């Protein structure tokens, strides 16, 4: 494709930055079967800093390798939680500066579509700002969006495990309509974890009874969610208190 850059080989790729708090759908946007990679009918190559490394010399080698693979496969490339690669360079952090510089160099010559996700957009190095083609911000989930997330997980569970696990109607009503639950500022990942924990508790209780029902079903009731979400609420309250004290 045509590039407006006067230096041959530079600026031919498309760089998209997805930024916002954890668990609000940044990775989901790119990496699920219903999102960008699937919509474009292109493979997804998903990386984290662990795949790339944190030493400048090895980082360059790994970036060249992964970028070439993405170009050869015509893949969408996702670098998830790329904060350490995007962080502002400082006078005393020579090793960190080298890491950021290496990523900048290789990113400029990448000719494909690159998505970067970060939770700390305020700490991005200025040099990245002019290299990002599109920046999309995500906000914390509203109560209405959280209800939709819960519902999507319930629907997924019903599609995939209806013969094994049943969420009681009272349990669903509690999670979706209770004002106390709505006021807990859960993100999508925390909602997923709460559901999985409630299911695990129900499975454990079923085994402990030593008298499985004739249907073999595990029933997840309101009480399971109450216990899990009570702990989540206490944890959120504690974290908020600690942060206020630190300030």
Describe this structure in words.
- The chain is α/β, with parallel strands linked by helices and 247 residues long.
- The protein folds into two domains: 14-137, Rossmann fold, CATH 3.40.50.300; 143-246, no CATH class.
- 54% of the residues lie in helices and 12% in strands.
- The chain is built from twelve helices and seven strands.
- It has helices at residues 26-31, 36-39, 49-52, 56-73, 83-86, 94-108, 126-129, 143-161, 169-177, 179-182, 188-209, 222-246; strands at 14-19, 44-47, 76-79, 113-118, 134-137, 165-167, 218-220.
- The strands form two sheets. A five-stranded parallel beta sheet has the order 2-3-4-1-5.
- Helix 4 packs parallel to helix 6 (94-108).
- The radius of gyration is 22 Å and the shape is elongated.
- It starts with 13 loop residues before the first strand and ends with a helix.
- The mean pLDDT is 87.
- GO terms for molecular function: ATP binding; ATP hydrolysis activity.
- This is AAA+ ATPase domain-containing protein.
Provide a brief overview of the structure.
This protein has 247 residues and is an alpha/beta fold.
